Structure formats: C-alpha cells, structure tokens
C-alpha cells in the first residue's frame, strides 16, 4: 500500500496510528473492516483507499517490526564489540524497541497466525533471520556445541523477549521495567548457556 492511495483529510501515518490503537486494545482477528473504518473515522467504503485488506495491514506492521529489529542487528554488528557485548546490546535494543512498538509486538505474538501461507512466509523469513542472529550470539558464548535441550531453550528466547515487557506491571516506572526485564533476560541467557 503506497501513501498516494490515502484519501485527503487522513494521512497514512494518522491512519496507521489510529488503526494500531484499535489492534492494541482488541485482537486483530476480532476487528472487522467496518469497525476499523469507524475507529479511524472514515466511511466503510473509504477504508479500501487506505488499505488493501486487513491481512495486508498486518503484514505491513509485522514486516516493519522485524525490519526495525534487523536494522538494530546491523548497527550492532558494525560496532567493535565482543559477542557478550553484542548480545547485551541486542537484548537492550529489543526491549527498548518494545516500548516504542508495543502494538507491533502484540500483533507478532498474538496475531501472526491470522496470515495466509504466502504472507506468513514473508514475515517468517524476517523473523527467522532475526532469530538466527540471537541464536548465533548466544551460541558463540557457549564453551561447547549445544544439544537438543539448549537448542529448544534458544528457540524460546525470542518469544520470551517479545512477551516479557507485557508481563511487567504497567505501574512500574520505565527505568524499573528496563532493569527487571534485562535482569530476567540475562538470567535466562545464563541458564540456556548452562544447558547441555
């Protein structure tokens, strides 16, 4: 969907912001196109000037999320850091991005199953590219190759990172949330490294 297709009066960025508000509150699969149109303040017929389909909108958001995560990986890789420092920066960046793209992460955790197979494959490739960067970094910190236990635990790391900030109390200050999230993540990484 290109910005040129957006109707005058409602910019593409404003449409995206309002739509994300709705999907942050309610599951993607529970929102109809008519409800989406009402929430963003346009007629049901005009919604298709803004978006081809709900699925196209979901794919756009998920691709945006994984591209932002992979961009952070690229920036970290360009710095002269040890593998441990890279992993720390990657996790910190992941958790910070969660603060700015909370709705995107919720969609990734809860609603990526709403995609058709071809759309799911597009998103899956980006997710797996990001996941392999994390797995590689954790693997480089281990003294010896891991077995099935470590591999299984490593595969659980990305879903945990995606969900962890939502598990923390919203009443906590941002700085406290970051410290708790980082402490829990570090403990999980150390536990994974200890697995055979």
Describe this entry's structure for a reader:
- The chain is mostly helical and 196 residues long.
- It has two domains: 3-49, Arc Repressor Mutant, subunit A, CATH 1.10.10; 58-194, Tetracycline Repressor, domain 2.
- It contains eight helices and no strands.
- The protein has helices spanning 12-25, 33-40, 54-77, 83-100, 102-110, 117-141, 148-167, 174-194.
- Helix 3 packs parallel to helix 6 (117-141) and helix 4 (83-100) crosses helix 8 (174-194).
- The longest helix has 25 residues, at 117-141.
- The protein is elongated.
- The N and C termini lie far apart (47 Å).
TL;DR?
With 196 residues, the chain is an all-alpha fold. 71% of the residues lie in helices and 0% in strands.
């Amino acid at each position: 969907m290109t910005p040129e297709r957006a109707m005058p009066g409602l910019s593409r960025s404003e449409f995206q912001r309002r739509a994300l508000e709705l999907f942050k509150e309610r599951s993607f699969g529970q929102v109809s196109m008519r409800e989406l149109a009402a929430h963003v303040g346009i007629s049901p017929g005009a919604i298709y000037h803004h978006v081809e389909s709900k699925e196209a909108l979901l794919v756009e958001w998920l691709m945006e999320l994984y591209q932002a995560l992979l961009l952070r990986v690229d920036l970290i890789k360009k710095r002269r850091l040890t593998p441990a420092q890279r992993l720390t920066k990657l996790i910190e960046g992941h958790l910070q991005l969660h603060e700015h793209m909370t709705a995107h992460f919720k969609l990734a955790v809860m609603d990526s199953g709403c995609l058709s197979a071809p759309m799911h494959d597009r998103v899956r490739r980006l997710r797996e590219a990001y996941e392999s960067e994390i797995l590689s970094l954790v693997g480089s910190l281990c003294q010896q190759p891991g077995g099935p236990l470590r591999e299984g635990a490593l595969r659980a790391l990305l879903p945990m990172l995606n969900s962890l900030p939502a598990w923390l109390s919203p009443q906590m200050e941002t700085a406290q949330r970051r410290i708790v999230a980082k402490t829990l993540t570090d403990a999980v990484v150390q536990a994974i490294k200890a697995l055979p």
